[in-house]
Amino acid sequence: MQYTLLALAISHAIALPLLAQTATLELEAVSVTAQSLQTANSKQTQQLSATELQQQQAQNIADVVRFVPGVTTTDMGRFGSNGFNIRGLDGDRVAITVDGLSLGETLDPPTFVAYEFFRSARGGVDIDALKQVEIIK
Predict the structure, then answer these.
(1) With 85 labelled, which of 1, 16, 25, 117 sits at a CA distance of 20 to 30 A?
(2) Within 10 Å of residue 91's Cβ, how many Cβ atoms?
(3) Which of 109, 106, 102, 107 is nearest to 90 (CA)?
(4) Closest CA to 95 of 105, 109, 82, 80
(5) Is residue 64 a contact partner of residue 134, using CB atoms and an 8 Å limit?
(6) What is the mean pLDDT of residues 70-76?
(7) Which pTM was predicted?
(8) Contact 106, 82 (CB under 8 A)
């Protein structure tokens, strides 16, 4: 019995290096192409210029998206709007960028519910200072 185990161990020691010396396979080259988001989904992007905002007499972010289908604002009561609601997604799930920089997440923890004065909003953007608004759905 001991000789059988010894023979088995020696055969494994010899066979494993032989199995490791297999030929390497080369994979075919794969090319990946992509389109930018604006060209692929031009119907999903809407741009509003400063003159359009002025013609619409936009005073806050709710006025900015008043004529954009599928986009509304989330109301915080007397504290104004708390960002956008795009096709059912709202809050921190909707990214807001100003001059390429992301606005932070909402600082409205559930423990502040009793103290409404501590509520914070993401919609505090000066509409008069905007040159262009781009909404990507």
Answers:
(1) 117
(2) 14
(3) 106
(4) 105
(5) no
(6) 83
(7) 0.55
(8) yes
